[in-house]
Specification:
The chain is an alpha+beta fold. The chain has helices spanning about 1-15, 60-70, 105-125, 140-160, 165-170, 170-180, 215-225, 235-250, 255-280, 290-300, 305-315, and strands at about 25, 35-40, 45-50, 80-85, 90, 185-190, 195-200, 205, 215. Helix 4 (about 140-160) packs across helix 9 (about 255-280), helix 9 packs antiparallel against helix 10 and helix 10 (about 290-300) packs antiparallel against helix 11. The relative contact order is 0.12.
């Protein structure tokens, strides 16, 4: 059904009859619940077709947010054809080279790309959202608490087979959620990591930005700097923070930055557990040890770290 919707939309966009050959090549990366395919035909350069369902609330936001970001001169793919009434959109094809695919490239050579990525985060800080653009609900205490519960349910209980009851009752998690959720003034991507940063013609482009919302800028920074897929060393993380300071003229306060990182890493581990246990996708298993190691690091010498360490170190020591 979803591929048929993309195919029929492609024919409408191209204005061709059914005899014109069109091939759809599935793009399976990510876990957003959407169907994404590369559309190939001899009558047009390649483009990407996306079909979504109502499985996730933010899927409907992709097209309007893409148009807003493009108009605001962010590096995002161009919407070629909007058929949102049928849950389909055709977008510019930016290729297959993402930041993750360059993981084995010397870090020094990747730094200019990280500068480009961090410049996008900095610009989000100043972007003005049109009054008629509806964003997803902001990062408030409830959303941070939801991320924690997601982690407790899908990683601690389903994946590690440990009881999450003591963690759920621990007020340190609630206090952190309430503290972080007290301010959510600026735009955040919400999933700012290496798979969602594509490179074309030496430019870095953001994708999967449908979860754009207001929140703390440090959350996006933590998503990139403590990216479980990349496993940055301590020295590399310091270089990225130096780069951020050069761009924004400030460095995130360490305690706040680590709280945002812990939230992000808990969310990521919850997603990994859910995908492995319920979707049988084993690719994410390899990234769990890095995420656990980072979570233990950013929560060290805190009440949350004291609560998590016995469970996590039992499985990943």
């Amino acid at each position: 059904m979803s591929t048929e919707a993309i195919l029929s939309t492609a024919r409408q966009y191209l204005e061709v009859d059914p005899t014109t050959p069109i091939t759809l090549i599935p793009i399976k990366k990510g876990a957003s619940g959407r169907t994404i395919a590369r559309v190939k035909t001899p009558v047009h350069e390649d483009f990407i077709g996306i079909h979504w369902t109502d499985e996730r609330d933010d899927n409907e936001q992709f097209v309007p947010i893409a148009e807003f970001l493009k108009k605001a001169r962010f590096n995002v793919p161009k919407i070629l054809y909007d058929r949102s009434q049928h849950s389909v959109a055709l977008i510019e094809d930016l290729g297959d080279t993402d930041l993750l695919s360059l993981k084995d490239t010397p870090f020094k050579k990747r730094l200019p790309l990280y500068r480009s990525a961090l410049e996008q985060v900095d610009r989000l800080f100043y972007a003005r959202v049109p009054k008629d653009l509806e964003l997803m609900p902001p990062f408030d205490a409830d959303l941070y608490r939801w991320e924690q519960k997601y982690f407790f349910d899908y990683f601690i209980e389903d994946f590690l087979k440990e009881s999450p009851v003591a963690l759920e009752k621990n007020e340190a998690f609630t206090d952190m959620a309430e503290g972080l959720g007290a301010s959510h003034k600026h735009l955040v991507h919400r999933d700012f990591q290496s798979q969602n940063l594509l490179i074309k013609d030496d430019k870095l482009y953001m994708i999967d930005f449908q979860g754009l919302r207001r929140g703390r800028q440090e959350y996006d920074l933590a998503s990139l700097i403590f990216d479980p897929y990349m496993d940055h060393s301590a020295d590399e993380r310091e270089q990225l923070l130096d780069l951020w300071e050069d761009i924004s003229d400030e460095r995130p306060e360490t305690s706040l930055f680590h709280k945002c990182a812990s939230q992000r890493l808990m969310q990521a581990l919850g997603a990994f557990g859910n995908i492995i246990e319920n979707r049988n996708d084993e690719w994410y298993r390899q990234h769990i040890p890095v995420a656990v190691k980072s979570l233990l690091e950013v929560t060290k010498d805190t009440e949350i770290g004291e609560a998590l360490a016995p469970i996590l170190e039992k499985h990943y020591s």
